[in-house]
């Protein structure tokens, strides 16, 4: 995949559950945090956008869990970006174990921008990407 | 869908995020809690199974977010069940707004049972379902 | 203690950590949810108050952990109320194991109301309590 | 305070609630993560200790919330250590805003070590501290 952004994180013990592995829902937290850090890297801010009445909204999440993250693990969250049609921005996100390089989880997160509760074209976002010269796939 | 189980829950304010809506990751908590309550209803216990070296593991999560749950909302989590091939149990789970009847989110959660880290046939689970006379679809 | 409100909850498995017990931080979630449900019972709403520019803010939390909640437990969160001086409302909150009646945790949560970031007298709250005839201790 | 350890963290947006500030319960996550990282720094591991039947258990948490962490904040969690009597290890933990140096929260976390559910002297921990030449206060 054509990754355009990555951050390194590590498992926190409170994120693990009875099975001693990171709870499935926490991967969404990791993915979200990576997306928001990516927004920062193109000078956009999720909280500020919200205050301006402009919300990035997740409409679909598809996560394949390949291997379990456990206490002590460090990992990289990587992002590849795809614009689908006029409205959808899709974040293809991989979680890679730092030491082993293993793919731990692969997420496909579909988002739309909304203003006053209605979908709007993600122009702010696309402009920010172009300003920074960031590459993304366009699909129908 | 042919629902076989449901529980009623309500939004807790700490589950909401900056946008004032339930954070996307929390829906996985709701889905998981409903599955574990369903296990209880067929006399199985997630924590006990783990202590017996038998883990239900989520391999894939696909969630369509249709409408946002907000502070004060009550909702029903419903489950329909599907056995796919020899190993996979798929939980089709809907979250329905209690007052309006609106579909808020639809999840397809694919699980396998593992023992000593390796996939095993979900016989314990299938037997429990049959004992209780619970219906599930079988697909290839 | 002179309890004025209680709710019943049950442990959700995702709230448990590697040790197989409910993580310490989650007790704060339970306490908060009970407080917000109590507000509802006197016709106040935490999210609405926030939208009106009026925030209940926790300034201190003191929790004694007596026994560990585990998977499958049901429990009661009870509230006794105390007004301290002009500004502070203190929620004395106990978590009682439903089956055994054991005290699991005891919290003392000190709150103030803020408007535009500055502490204000909790008149809205006190009026709501008086309207409902709800008893609270007053201390200096 | 005589700090012996610190880590730097940053607010993640999903940790913020309706009020747009980090939810109070999350500070316990920050404190816990800092403690576990500190354990690592003296070659102890929370998850491993648990598997050896040796659990660090929090018996009391006292947190003073001074200022609210918000989206985008970076902060330092600092630890000072105190041995109280024969059994209790107390972690005095401060959260300091990175940019402003402001104290955001101060926690006093009382812990005991347990084996088979019964309190035991924290010898493993004290030995690890002495091996590393780490200073701690002893009180009665």
Task: Characterise the protein shown here.
The structure is a homotetramer of 140-residue chains. Chain A has 140 residues and is an alpha+beta fold. Chain A has a single domain, classed as Thiol Ester Dehydrase, Chain A, CATH 3.10.129. Chain A contains 3 helices and 7 strands. Chain A has helices at residues 24-41, 46-51, 123-131; strands spanning 5-10, 54-65, 74-84, 88-97, 103-115, 118-120, 137-139. In chain A, strands 1, 2, 3, 4, 5, 6 and 7 form a 7-stranded mixed β-sheet that branches. Chain A is globular, with a radius of gyration of 16 Å. Chains in contact: A-B, A-C, A-D, B-C, B-D, C-D. β2 (54-65) of chain C pairs antiparallel with β2 of chain D, so a sheet runs across the interface.
Low-confidence stretches of chain A: none
Q: Compute the number of strand runs of chain A.
A: 7
How many angstroms separate the termini of chain A? 18 Å
Helix content of chain A: 10-25%
CATH homologous superfamily classification of chain A: Hotdog Thioesterase
Q: Please give the oligomerization state of what you see.
A: homotetramer
Return the average pLDDT of chain A rounded to an integer. 95
Count of discrete structural domains of chain A: 1
H/E topology pattern of chain A: EHHEEEEEHE
Main sheet properties of chain A: 7 strands, mixed
- Looking at the overall shape, the CATH architecture of chain A is Roll
Q: Helix tally of chain A?
A: 3
**Any idea of the CATH topology of chain A?**
Thiol Ester Dehydrase, Chain A
